[in-house]
Amino acid sequence: MAKRGNGSGTAKGGRRWIKWIFLGPILAFFLLQLYFFVQVCWFVYFNPGSTSFMRQQLSELREKNPDAQLKHEWVPYERISNNLKRAVVASEDANFADHPGVDFEALEKAYERNNRKHKVVGGGSTITQQLAKNLFLSGSRSYLRKGQEMIIAFMLETVMGKRRILEVYLNVVEFGRGVFGAEAAARYYFRTPAAKLAPAQAARLAVMLPNPRYYDRNRSTNYLLRRAGLIQRRMASAELP
Fold first, then answer.
1. Is 235 exposed, middle or buried (0-12, 13-18, 19+ CB in 10 A)?
2. What is the model's pTM?
């Protein structure tokens, strides 16, 4: 009888391990989402001191220069020129005021483009998704990271207003190597505060966003100038929150 009992206990122990092999990752996933959600709720009322992208880049800069510092200064929404707000919306996310955090039409186009290239070359990310990535994730390109980005984007849209999302985004997005946020970018490139950016200056900053480190080194490429002119013409129709 004792031997049968031991065998039964071993079987039950084995079943528990099998159960946790399946349930463990699910529990870890939900705990991670809870962590992100708590952070998002905090950022509704408190400005993020740094982001995942900031920390990654600072670490890279300090590999060459231990004393390296990022250029970054937080400014409230009212002290960012409407020219820059309109330029960024026109360039990065024309449907920003209307979508729920994810623009599914843009995602479909990006998916088709990636299939043609047989690799992830573009994600169709909205401003909200870009903010999610900047705050918490990495710059790597994969469908797994894209899925997590979408989840956080829905969290942001659920607890933040569009105005707050745009405010945080413009204060933390990368504009060049070690340059983060509208105020630092305006002073770095044009020696003016973000509140006084002219339409042409705002358009150029907005066009730099997809590849800011490249355009930090190459500030007068033909593409940059043509694209900035196009965005400047579109700015008047960009809808702000």
1. buried
2. 0.87
